[in-house]
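Resolvase protein structure dump, as promised
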Amino acid sequence: MVKEVVKLTPRIFKLTKIKKIRVAAYARVSTEKDEQHNSLEAQKAYFTKYIKERNDWQFAGLYYDDGISGLRHKNRDGFNRLIEDALQGKVDLIVTKSISRFARNTVDSLSTIRKLKGRGIGVFFQKENIHTLDTKSEFVLTLMSSLAQEESRSISENCTWGQRKRFADGKVTVPFERFLGYDRGEDGNLIVNKEQAVTVKKIYRMFLQGYSAFGIAKALTADSIPTPGGKKKWSAGTVHAILSNEKYKGDALLQKSFTVDFLTKEKKKNEGEIPQYYVTGNHEAIIPPSTFDRVQKLLALRKGGKNRISSVSIYSSKIKCGDCGSWYGSKTWHSTDKYRTRIWQYNHKFEEHCTTPHLKEEEIQTLFIKGVNMLVKDKQEIIATHKEMVKTVFDTSSLENEQLKLEEELNIVADKVNNCINENARKLQDQDEYEKKYTSLVNRFNTVESRLKEVKAIIVDKQDVMRLNILSRI
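structure tokens r here:
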């Protein structure tokens, strides 16, 4: 007898509750303009309605970034929160408008999608109709992400070209919302903000009076004067930036920095890699050019190193260590009690070996008075020696005579060049001879002009050094 097995189909079916998929949406706009902000609001409203209309979907939230580029994940707080929540098991599916809204960086886009896919979390791109959990989506996704990145590169290059074209045309723009002393005029140019200009002038005046950038910052903070960014506390760096910005004398240096990589947005100081443009007399100056230039010389003189000057004490940057040649600095012992004592010692006393002992300020004062008395005793001889030194070092009379001769020769050579050109136009000449004569005259003109510029620069430098020498001793 053959055994027979018959399958019996159940007549009672158990109804299992369908588990809803937790769906979150992501929206982003890359600028903070009003029309873009309205676009973001529209995206948020659309996705909220889109998800809630599906019976098999459960709304898991809406994440967004406003005014943030899609090139990097680093600064996209909304995006990063979404990915973190998804990886923690709070989201099953992410819905977004397009690949470019999700990310314009191919590497970041694919690595994030693969990480989510490894946890069983999908991403649905509406515009491209791509679902990342679909096995066929990988190739298409790679291609579309690459196209999005290239589109971003193209946009970045177009923006860079436009910016550099504006620079080449001498068009000046500044971040007016955090630029002290100027407002945006009707034509987009800089106009003086008289109230803020008072602060700018005060900064320059205090610096010329001997205050350091730190001292100026401290005084401005104490006077409750707001910083360019509207903050209460000033920093030495902000003061230094104002003191060294050529826009305060009415000029503008364009293309001070440039973007190295469109993906990372890394900026680099322009040290000759790309052209810069200097616009003279672009707008009304707050600081006279001569004053601004004098401040730049003083900034260079005060800048670090062994030759810096200071307004902290009359002895600052005046006392050198006899052992190692470095500057002495002041230090206060027992600053809060009756035994308060001010001493002077090598600034890096405890960092490097130095055998020279410290000195009390009273000892320095005694030595200073003794030295002054010695000078006063032989003051006539010292004054005569000093005058002779000034006459020798800073005398520009011979240079001024050379300048006059060069200017006279330059005019003569210029006349000869013009005569040579006119004569060639009036009558027939051997063109080889003409070219030889013309080239010789032009070369002579360039040589004289170059030497004239050099002489003028030496005269100005000598005069500036003399003024700074006097100023640094006051």
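The first helix runs from residue 34 to 52.
lmk if u need the other ones
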